[in-house]
């Protein structure tokens, strides 16, 4: 964490008791409380070992500045976000480090609409924190703390309103849930059972050391899920990340799909019911998303990379569907934030309505191959290197929303962007075959390296 910065792309994150100490959490709580100004805030945490310690520290700061705290306990991030909106709270604070390893934790601030605070609001909180502008309440105006039980049940009930319960129940799907020993296990299996599915859970017990697997739902962490689905002949498997705002799916053969494939399935179904609708996605998303939105006559809106950017853009345009390739889908009719359980319900809804298995739904899609790369670049040269690159690709089919994305006439594309956290440029290429994708990464890496040498 740099001198004047607390927030990264997804709230405040750090190593517990090294970067993120209880003392710091109290002060952050005071800064957030001052920012809101004696309001009603919902607080909850994920399953990490430090969740209780850090939420109590944050609550101490919030009440010291006169905020009234409603404590929800352990819950998925989207359940807390839904409850903030549903109970007309003024905001909320979530203690989570999402997909990071168990020794990390984080603090996320939620606005009254359930969406994470904007970058500008985060800067306000940082200024209060670093300039010591905390406003403590007098002894007789301190905030109170009361429990807010039941938010996970409310959340499950709310999701069910958005899908065809009868159609899904008729299919008697057998679903394997892998909640990574975290909060996804508090809502995912319950939702699926209430949808009439047969549920088999793995890594279901809450354990903040994450003994079953790391909480990032990457293919290498999902081998048990994949094997289980296949071994017991289930219809589908779902893995949540550590705070269950993202979900990654496995088909009946054990094949793991990245989030862009499930997002494209949801887009197709959504556009069939909502012709011409706006679909919001970061510029890092696959060309599959572009193809799907174009094929089914939607309007595609690109944003910078980052889930908060997608939520804010959906709010600005009143768009009802957004998504990221990492398995985060934002379903506006429920809430314009990433939501792992809502995504699961939408996918089952599509399977039930079309009568197709997940593998068949994916087989309909155009296939792209992805290659990634990076080159070293000192932070102070990032901006000028990006400008040079822009000059070189002028006249091509590009977007400069975030770094540079170039689309080529054969359907391939490359995104080149400076990392926000490391002294590197990252390259993401995709093409109709692996060789072409690899060639794009190689060509543009050497081009960047050559240019960098001249600077
Ligand atoms: Mg997450």
Describe, in plain words, how this protein is organized in 3D.
It is a single chain. By secondary structure, the chain is an alpha/beta fold. The protein has four domains: 138 residues, Alpha-D-Glucose-1,6-Bisphosphate, subunit A, domain 3 (Alpha-D-Glucose-1,6-Bisphosphate, Chain A, domain 3, 3-Layer(aba) Sandwich); 100 residues, Alpha-D-Glucose-1,6-Bisphosphate, subunit A, domain 3 (Alpha-D-Glucose-1,6-Bisphosphate, Chain A, domain 3, 3-Layer(aba) Sandwich); 92 residues, Alpha-D-Glucose-1,6-Bisphosphate, subunit A, domain 3 (Alpha-D-Glucose-1,6-Bisphosphate, Chain A, domain 3), CATH 3.40.120; 86 residues, Alpha-D-phosphohexomutase, C-terminal domain (TATA-Binding Protein), CATH 3.30.310. The chain contains 15 helices and 21 strands. The strands form four sheets. Strands 1-5-4-2-3-6 form a six-stranded mixed β-sheet, with helices on both faces. Strands 8-7-9-10-11 form a five-stranded mixed β-sheet, sandwiched between helices. The protein has a five-stranded mixed β-sheet with strand order 13-12-14-15-16, sandwiched between helices. The chain starts with 11 loop residues before the first strand and ends with a helix. The chain binds magnesium ion. The site of magnesium ion (MG) has 6 residues, from loops.
